[in-house]
Amino acid sequence: MRIALFVTCLADTLFPEAAKATVRLLERLGHEVAFPPGQTCCGQMHVNTGYQAQALPLVRRHTRVFDPYDVIVAPSGSCVGSVRHQHATVARRAGDVRLAARAESVAGRTYELSELLVDVLGVTDVGAYFPHRVTYHPTCHSLRMLRVADRPLRLLREVRGLDLVELPAAEQCCGFGGTFAVKNADTSTAMLADKMRHVLSTGAEVCTAGDSSCLMHIGGGLSRLHSGVRTVHLAEILASTERDDTMGERAELVVRS
Amino acid sequence: MTARETVLARLRAALGPAAPALTEVPRDYRRDGVVDIERLVDRLTDYRAQVHRVAATAVADTIAGILPAAAIVVVPPGLPSAWLPSTVTVLPDDDLDNARIAAAAAVVTAAAVAIADTGTVVLDGSPDQGRRVLSLLPDRHVCVVRTAQVVADVPQALARLTPHRPLTWISGPSATSDIELDRVEGVHGPRTLHVILLP
Amino acid sequence: MTRTFLGMPTAPTGVGHLRGAEPFPVAARRALADAQLRRNLGHATATIRAKSAAVIDEVPDWERLRAAGSAIKTDVMARLPELLEQLEQRVTQAGGVVHWAADAHEANAIVVDLVRDTGSDRVIKVKSMATQEIGLNEALEAAGIAPVETDLAELIVQLGDDRPSHILVPAIHRNRAEIRQIFLRAMPGVDPALTDEPADLAAAARRFLRQTFLSTPVAVSGANFAVAETGTLAVVESEGNGRMCLTLPRTLITVMGVEKVVPTWRDLEVFLQLLPRASTGERMNPYTSMWTGVTPGDGPQAFHLVLLDNGRSAVLADEVGRQALHCIRCSACLNVCPVYERTGGHAYGSVYPGPIGAVLSPQLTGVADNASLPYASSLCGACYDACPVKINIPELLVHLRDRAPHPHAESAVMAAAAYAMDRPALFAAAQRATRLSRLAGRRGRGLPPPLSGWTDGRDLSDPPPQTFRDWWANR
Fold it and tell me: Most buried by CB count within 10 Å: which residue of B34, C113, C122, C256?
């Protein structure tokens, strides 16, 4: 299958390992990955901060760039949520009914990674090997906007060597929320403190999730605590094999403190 | 312009000139539940009501067992006299003032409807239930319910009730969750609720 | 296109409690520093969440009830003027008197005049969000009339000279030991041997209020529902203080936001299933009172219904925003909100706290007066899932953020970002520049203001050696 990668601006700029892992994983499963170079950002930050007019050209760009593809994947529940739940609204609000229809069509072909694997490609055992104790944070937009439910857990359970431990109060927000973490930094920090307490209580070496943004937030907090717990994107775990364990490289990137 | 005209004009302006879009209300929720008396008993008990299942002829004896001898008991004018034991002092409501009602030890009423799903009895002010104040001020409320009055769920209860009557829905004794969200029985209403359930 | 109604009046300033004195982040910072408050809130919200989840699990058709509740409310908003006229007609036919109030000032004046007509210098009150919203107690006090709050939590707040912090449980921020202290300090005639057992505290309130209930000739209530078809009003409560107020006085005055009307008697079958389970986590609340006008020989023989606008028409004018008027005041959204759980209700400034407050208050007052509230959320979406009438609060928050006044510096950054993001070459250059500036400028791990708020408590990982698109191009 030919699958277009919607890399997301955050993964592109700051967390390319998650995107590279997505490519490696899909290619290992026998699929062809395309990277439409005209893509930039889905506009979520603008919409969620109150700048829908500025988001309109980004919605238009995203729709135009991805419209030619039958299947589109992003290693981010949040950005897929934006495409699915915000793009048509932004277009409609601007009075552009045609764009809204096209955006809805693109949204219908856009999947978060675990959705793509389980629902479209029909796999839960992706042949991964990751010999670590891992806990999974379900991230709000994957959990409640996309309803990915237990798809990531089903994928993780099939990973050889992986010891999956349940995260207490998993469904509670980590406190990121985009500009929320800046505008309401104190409240965000209080939410993060509880999330970290729960992560540490699991005794896991690795906290994973389907969103680089939440992982950046949680990982930033854990790093400040010198906790030794690493944050690793779900795609990186699923891309890991006995021969190609990316953990070493990843650990250097994240944990230096 | 009166305030009435102002408010209505603003609301109409807010909605705009277009005719209101009709909204179809989906009514596919449960409305045909089957009455389950065990469930009613379970739910009443769960909210600390005391349930007594007795024969229709045993109401007076049951009440005699619940209320202390010589207790003053307020009763609505249409309550069956056979329900009242000779051990208590009956105070029929002939426009009693509030102080006398409040001073009574208990009140005995019938009910209009009981709801199994929620453990609720509903009073509608009929002669065997009386004015609302009767079941409010005394500290004990004894409510007699016939099985035929029990419905399965809230939709069935509303279908049986008459809107223009003053209705009091009672689910267990007075309670509050205002302190640390823990439920505590007994604030301003009756602190004890007995439900006598007849066949 | 969303229409904007300039000139649709919002709730007036200088009266009522819809506007906070300071922005949310400032008030939240103080609340977050109060460890006792956070413990109280954490315990209480966790308790209610568990209770509510358990009784909702019992209902196999919960989602169908939510859908029905949502549709009924949508229908109400579309037909609000005619439903109110119908309600007025039915209440009048049943012996009640209907008053209309365009704003808080008018509503307060109506109630004060009605109380004066009874000759009483005291009113007993059932907990009511509408009367808190309009500052009725202050208006009554200014007119020499003493309002007595009879709900236990409201009494705790009133005796403690405090402010409510939750829609359902206004004293949620207080624990039993604090409540005991308040009673010992401020409740006349209280037993000095009072313990901090909740049952003991409730009994103290019962003794304290009993004589007041029996001797006050006028009561003020709110309303949970008003049925247009029949003129029936409904008040949902737990303690029996509502029944006292609705039954004992000669005169009853009910103040109700116009959005509380429902079309038909049958509609109550939906809301009486949704509200208790979502609200107190009970299958049914202990007491629900329903009355239609005046019943000869039973209860108040004079009944006044005050229909309140106070900014609601401005909310109705916003096609997206109007769903905030669907709220049935259950407070489920507060109980699941990670922000509310940590800051409590006072930080929101308005009598309507939590997620629903963050979307309702700014609309009632105009967004400029509560500009920080739409941002008081991480958009986690828990409120939308919990809402028994499916108000899409995250959508509303985002919608209101778009209407809120923006700081100039932020606007400039957003415009620049959008400009670059619409030009891939420029975007790629900006990505590299971001990386370089981080590499060149960093000592420690901080970002410059305003982003420093984030890096104060977290480390930003090192920028990667190359962006994804560079890696892809060189593959």
Answer: C256
Please name the member of C378, C401, C453 whose beta carbon is closest to the beta carbon of A50.
C401
| C171 in B contact zone (CB under 8 Å) | yes
pLDDT per position as a tens digit, B154-173: 999 999 999 999 999 999 88
Touch test A–B: 3 Cβ pairs or more under 8 Å: no
Chain A residues near residue C377 by CB distance under 8 angstroms: 177, 180
Give the tens place of pLDDT for each residue, B82-137. Answer: 999 999 999 999 999 999 999 999 999 999 999 999 999 999 999 999 999 999 99
CB A22 within 8 A of CB A5: yes
**Alpha helices, H only, chain A:** 9-13, 16-28, 44-49, 52-66, 77-85, 87-93, 97-108, 113-115, 140, 151-157, 180-183, 185-201, 212-224, 234-239, 247-255
Judge if A167 and A240 occupy the same domain: yes
Q: Note whether A146 and A223 are same-domain residues.
A: yes
Q: How close C81 comes to chain B (CA, Å)?
A: 6
CB interface of B with C, residues 79-108, below 8 Å: 95, 98-99, 102
Q: Domain range for residue A6? A: 2-120
Residues A232 and A207: their CA atoms lie apart, in Å, by: 6
CB C233 within 8 A of CB B166: no
CA distance C369 to chain A (A): 16
Is A125 within a domain? no
Is B33-198 a CATH 3.40.50.10420 domain?
Answer: yes
What is the spatial distance between Cα A31 and Cα A14, in angstroms, rounded to a whole number? 25
Any idea what DSSP says for residue A143? I
Among the partner residues B2, B23, B172, nearest to C286 by beta-carbon distance: B172
Nearest to C241 among B4, B11, B188 (CB): B188
Complete DSSP assignment for B111-127: -SEEETTTTEEEE---T
- As for how many domains chain A has, the answer is 2
**Residue C439 pLDDT class (50, 70, 90 cuts):** low
CB contact, 8 Å: B58 with chain C?
no
Q: Following DSSP, what letter does each residue of A99-120 receive, concatenated?
A: HHHHHHHHHHTEEEHHHIIIII
* Sign of the four-CA dihedral A215, A216, A218, A223: positive
Last residue of a domain, one of A120, A150, A171: A120
Domain limit, last residue, from A120, A153, A174: A120
* Chain C CA closest to residue B170: C287
In a domain, C451, yes or no: yes
